[in-house]
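User:
I study polymers; will you set down one protein's sequence and backbone structure tokens?

Assistant:
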Amino acid sequence: EEIIRCAYEVGAPRISPPRERTGSTDFANVMELIPGSCIRVMFVPEKAAAHSQEYLDNGKSESGHTSIIYGAKILAAVCYDLITVPGLLKEVQEDYAIQRKKMIEEA
């Protein structure tokens, strides 16, 4: 929720909500140990296939570079909020503990 709010705050275009289900990823393995999030700021046409030449080409474009800048701004805004908003860090830590427990129980 905080990440999506910050994405809107910095004016990131075409923000997508987190996916409900994804394949197995190294990132998911890391998130078993620490909280993480995938910031989904689109830089390709909506129907573009993942891991395609279209993705590669758009990643090298100004749109791809701009998306990286938006991602950095979003991360900075979230970090700022975690430091300055009373109770937010504790809330995130508690939510992570609940989500991690669910992941372990479902495995």
The mean pLDDT is 87.
